[in-house]
Amino acid sequence: MTYAITQTCCNDATCVAVCPVNCIHPTPEERAFGSTEMLHIDPRACIDCGACADACPVDAIFPVDSLSAGQREYADINAAYYEGEEPIPVGDEVDGPNFHVWGEPAFERSLPSDFGPLRVAVVGTGPAGMYAAQDLLLHTAAEVTLIDRLPVAGGLVRYGVAPDHPATKKVGDTFSRFHSHPRVRMHLGIEVGRDVTAEELSAHHDAVIYAVGASTDKRLGVPGEELPGCLSATAFVAWYNAHPEAVAQGVDLSAERVVVVGNGNVALDVARILVADPEALAATDIAAHALDALRASRVREVVVLGRRGPEDAAYTRSELLALKHVPGVELVVDDHDPRTPAAIDAAGAGDRAAVLK
């Protein structure tokens, strides 16, 4: 019995560090790391130890024979990543699990061992800010000041992840232990530029890390964009996640058809929330006002628009699979352009377009 990595993979590579046989790739040392949608377990090398499942911060790893109906495709997705790959011989081990030539390990210090403690400010308590803080706390003697303009820490983990993805939100548990670290001071409800200036932060810290993300929407620049009923995905996500700055009555669901422009993961989140059974969402941490609105919603069809063909779609396979498996929802691909079905038919097992077959 081997293990497989599934939809909620967060790519933080904790699983890579604990795997005793190096069967999870790409690793942080490999070129593909950071550019793949998720990590993958090689079923040929996995020894069924379960160390990766225990270490995964978002519960994304399961034994293949215990995958649910909606997860079974991930066994093939994991295996497909290694198609055409052959292990690199290491010494007398010709058929080992290594896909990377490991050099001699070097443990270089960027700071001398007698260097005094640093004072570092991290602006933003989302994943980017907390990964930076975590690295500082684990590998230096720095004192860290965490600053966030919102009253609750978490950033996109708290206010950006869809409520029906609770496992993904578990990565926040990994970060929360650092909130009370003895070398951490956290200031919430503090906005740089309003409550404190960038100059003041620089004057009182040796370094300042800005991990605030994108604070505004990307506008389309098309006529009618400002008409009632047209809103950004940022505003919609904030609405259903109870963002402190979201307007509770800001979304009108009185029409039967909704058009989502864009086909990235957030676009699919929006589509999935609109068509999901509200009673299934009731068990999540969705905002109460959003749940009430979805229960009264008249939406019956969601049209997702993409500028290019399925081979260039922006979504990840895991998010499209999540949409495909929403109970009671039929996923239909508009094939008026013959290039669309042709691209889907020609897609390989590891391609995003293959999920549309």
Automatic annotation (TrEMBL):
The protein's matches in Gene3D superfamilies, at most eight in alphabetical order, are given as: 3.30.70.20, FAD/NAD(P)-binding domain (3.50.50.60)
A Pfam family in this protein? Pyr_redox_2
GO terms assigned for molecular function: ferredoxin-NADP+ reductase activity; iron-sulfur cluster binding; metal ion binding
Reactions that this protein is recorded to catalyse: 2 reduced [2Fe-2S]-[ferredoxin] + NADP(+) + H(+) = 2 oxidized [2Fe-2S]-[ferredoxin] + NADPH
Keyword annotations: FAD, Flavoprotein, Iron, Iron-sulfur, Metal-binding, NADP, Oxidoreductase
Signal sequence extent: none
Keyword match Iron-sulfur:
yes
Q: Which InterPro entries match?
A: 4Fe4S_Fe-S-bd, 4Fe4S_Fe_S_CS, FAD/NAD-bd_sf, FAD/NAD-binding_dom, Ferredox_Rdtase
All copies of domain 4Fe-4S ferredoxin-type, residue ranges: 37-66
Keyword check for Iron: yes
Please tell me which top-level EC class this enzyme sits in.
oxidoreductase
Q: Which cofactor does it need?
A: FAD
Instruction: Give the EC number(s) listed in the UniProt record.
Output: 1.18.1.2
By what name is this protein known? ferredoxin--NADP(+) reductase
Originating species: Streptomyces parvus
